[in-house]
Each structure stands twice: as structure tokens, then as C-alpha cells.
Input
Amino acid sequence: MGSGNWRSELRSESFAREAESEPETGTLSIVVLGASGDLAKKKTFPALFNLYRQGFLQPSEVHIFGYARTKISDDELRNRIRGYLIHGKGDSPEHPEAVSKFLQLIKYISGSYDTEEGFRLLDKEIYAHEVSRNSLEGTSRRLFYLALPPSVYPSVCKMIGTCCMNKSDLGGWTRIVVEKPFGKDLETAEKLSTQIGQLFEEQQIYRIDHYLGKELVQNLLVLRFANRFFLPLWNRDNIDNVQIVFREDFGTDGRGGYFDQYGIIRDIIQNHLLQVLCLVAMEKPISLKPEHIRDEKVKVLQSVLEIKDEEVVLGQYEGYTDDETVPDNSNTPTFATVVLRIHNERWEGVPFILKAGKALNSRKAEIRVQFKDVPGDIFKCKKQGRNEFVIRLQPLEAMYMKLTVKQPGLEMHTVQSELDLSYMQRYQGVVIPEACERLILDTIRGDQQHFVRRDELKAAWEIFTPLLHRIDRGELKPSPYKPGSRGPVEADELLEKAGYVQTHGYIWIPPTL
Ligand SMILES: NC(=O)C1=CN([C@@H]2O[C@H](COP(=O)(O)OP(=O)(O)OC[C@H]3O[C@@H](n4cnc5c(N)ncnc54)[C@H](OP(=O)(O)O)[C@@H]3O)[C@@H](O)[C@H]2O)C=CC1
Ligand SMILES: O=C1O[C@H](COP(=O)(O)O)[C@@H](O)[C@H](O)[C@H]1O
Output
């Protein structure tokens, strides 16, 4: 199937810099900081396991270190994560054996995040591994994945910088991966960027947003710029509105303490949905080089106008404050619809409606591009619905185009139907990699295309900070909504006001095999 080819072409171009340099020969040490935590067990270690299974991490050159304060043994850490590997993509007969071999590559070190002792020990262990593999000093590769709350990033980066860097430069490297949310607003994010920037070069910092690793998010550039179809249509003359939607059918699920500090805008909209918006709205980059792509993303972000309060709906699901880590009077939104307006030649007047919510009626993430009505419509199609191009990011990756066709039969009646590219059906047997898996591989390969650059992050915070401050001050209040519902009714009203026309009586049903 063609899917592998385009990706390798994309990669080969963005790796042009690497191809020019010497192949990397040193050992690879991957350090997961915060190894005792939720992200590490659910996403980071399973992603590493999948890379190992596919041969991207060779036991002869890689070693994995877990680091956190919790005092546990190597085996205790291995037992914590084992279940998340077995219940992952465990489809091959050698799977249990592969799990055991992979787990043996992991060593755990306990230490604090702000004193040198633990990091000196970590460095010693990494070094011992490098020596055991005859890695020439200075050629080794050290990747630090910060699966930690952002509050400890500065001290951890300082410790890495002081204790754990490669001692000389013979083609090896030290890179850090930092998770979102990166800061809480413009000021704190900039402060954090400055602190980390004093310790690491921008090329060493990988600000991860796992939505950028999703298959259909990565497909956006190809879709938009490799298809003649879309080139002339993708603008304000043809598109009426764009929705980028994230829904989850569960609540904060034991993460209330974290979530209440951030809320849905910081957790999902300011990063995941805004990154998707950039790829939907940006101009064609000069090339696929990471800097060219990120330059275009920054331009879009900088063209977003100030958000108006009347174009925001906030919600909080009933029962959210039952979590004992959430204060009873919390004003934190668990749902938000926000209309963004891009002030440029292509998008003037087209609302980009970003919507995200927890504890809703379904789990889904999609982009919905709604086209304008057909001028001089002789079929009265308007009553049936508009053309829509929907990109379903998850679950069941698909792209479908809602269009009007003649209803089969003797009469000249029209009906809504769709052109459907459902991945499960079209790409049978193709395993779609997990987002984190792909992004970790990118960090090892030194490809920053799918990571957020410092100026991008700044521009993203500039858009949302004034609104977030108004919410933090209690000037905007979330409306209550029932768990398992569509969210507050005001959100649908805002959608309609922004111009979205719902197609009644039509539902796209994902095909099954
Ligand atoms: N969980 C998820 O699904 C996702 C998480 N993220 C981001 O990843 C990062 C880690 O998330 P997650 O694993 O859920 O977080 P956790 O709360 O599980 O924290 C990870 C580890 O960090 C240590 N830790 C926790 N709180 C503190 C603290 N206040 N000070 C110092 N150390 C602390 C703990 O290890 P110990 O006490 O052993 O040192 C803990 O096991 C966060 O930035 C989060 O926003 C991003 C996307 C999804
Ligand atoms: O970053 C986050 O993402 C998850 C949703 O990720 P997905 O890949 O399953 O869509 C969300 O649950 C979490 O609150 C947020 O921090």
C-alpha cells in the first residue's frame, strides 16, 4: 500500500540535514524522568516497547533508564508497566517473550529532582552502560524524556545540564523532551522557555504535543498540498466555517488535582487543537524542512485576532467537584467552545470553532470543514445540508466528504451521501503507529518537524492568555452540563451563530469489515 512511501519521502526530505552528516554510532540511553507516573506507564514505555518490537531500538545499542523519587526496585517498575505492554499491540506469538526482553533493558534509579546526588548516580549508570558497549566517549546519545509536571522542569533541566551531559562532542548528543502544558500563560511559559533556553539549545529541546504524531494530523500537509482538488477550494471564497473538535466520554478520571489547575483550554485547546488549526490554515511551506513548516505555523498563530467573550462558551460537568482534589467552588471549565478568527487574505471572515470537552456523549476528535451553499441552487439542497469534508482523527481514522447526489430511482430527488476513505477498510493489515511512538522516533532521529518551536508556543499563549486570565479571575463562568451529554446547549447556539449548518437526518456510519 502507498501509505509507507509518502511518509518515507516526507522523512527523507526533513532528514536531509542528517543524511549529510556522519551516521550515528554511539550507544543510545533513553531516560524517562517521572517513570513512576501515569504518562510514563500509559504512553512513554508502551511507545518505547513498540519501537523496540519493530527493531528501531536495538538491544545492542539502547538502554532505558527510569528515574523518579518513588523508592522502587527495577523489578517493581517493570511490573508496573508490564500490563500496559501486554495489553497494547500484543498481536504476535512472540509477544510475551518480547515484553520480557524489553523489560530487561530498563533500569530504575530513585532520586530527587532538585539535588545532584540522584543525577550523579544516573550519569554513572548511563556512563557504565556506554562503556559496556564500547561507545567512544562523546559519540553517545542521551535522550531525556520529562514525563513530569512542568513545575519541576527547570530544576530537572539544571540537574541534567550539570550532571548528565555528554562530556565531549564527537557527534553524540543530549536531547530533552518536554511535555505539555508548557507553562500556564504567556508569562510563565516565557519564563520556563528562558530557564530551559539557558541550559539547552533550541535544537536540543523537543516540546512534544502528541496530537502532532497522530496519523491523520500528519496527513494534513499531504492532503492539502499534494491534491489539486483542495488547492483552489481551501479559502474564504468556498469554506464557510471550520470546526476542530475533541470529545471524551470520561471525566478527569483521577487526574482532578492536575486538571483543576489547568482546565480544558490549557489541557487540550491551547495545544492540541491549536496545532491542528495551524496545519489546516497555514500557507504552503517552501519545503518540508522543519523550520519552513514551523515558520508558516507561527504566521497563522500571529494572525489570530483577540478572542471575544461572546464567542466563548464554557461548561463544567455535574459531579466534577466530587473529586476530593477539586475545590467545591472550582471555576475550571471541563468544556469550552471558542471561535478563533484569522486575519489574513485566505481566512478573513471564516470562523474556526475549537471545541473540547470531557464527560461528553462520545470519544472523538475530528476536523469538520463546511463549505458554503451552492449559489443559484436549483435542487434546494440547502435543506438537506452543505458539503462537508470531515477528517476523523480518532477513533477509526477516516476522511469523508459529505456531498449531495441524486437519490437512486426514477425521481429526480437529491440525497446526502459521502465519499469515504475509512482507513480500517482501505488499509487493511496496516498498523497505524501510536502518536508517541512516532514522536520518540523523531527525537532519536533529530527531526523537529512535529515539535513545537519556542516562538510557536509564545504565539499560542498570546492567543489564549487574556481569555484564560478572565476565567481565572472568575469573570467568565462555566455552565453546568450533564455527564454523557453534548455539553452546554449554549455551545450549539454559538455554533449556529458562527454559521455552522447542521445536516439533519444524516449520520456517517463508519464502515466495518
Ligand atoms: N497522563 C497523561 O495522559 C498525559 C500527561 N501529560 C503530561 O505529562 C506530564 C506527566 O504527566 P503524568 O504522568 O500524568 O503526571 P503524574 O502526576 O503521574 O506525575 C509523574 C511523576 O512525577 C512525579 N511528581 C508528581 N507530582 C510531582 C510534584 N508536584 N513534584 C515533583 N514530582 C512530582 C511523581 O513521581 P515521583 O513522586 O516518584 O517522583 C509522578 O509519578 C505532565 O506534564 C502532563 O501534563 C501529557 C499528555 C497526557
Ligand atoms: O493531553 C491530553 O490528551 C488526552 C487525550 O489524548 P488522546 O490521544 O487520547 O486523544 C487527554 O485525556 C488528557 O486530558 C490530556 O492531558
Observations:
- The mean pLDDT is 90.
- The chain has two domains: 3-178, 212-430+453-498.
- The chain has 15 helices and 15 strands.
- The two ends are 18 Å apart (CA to CA).
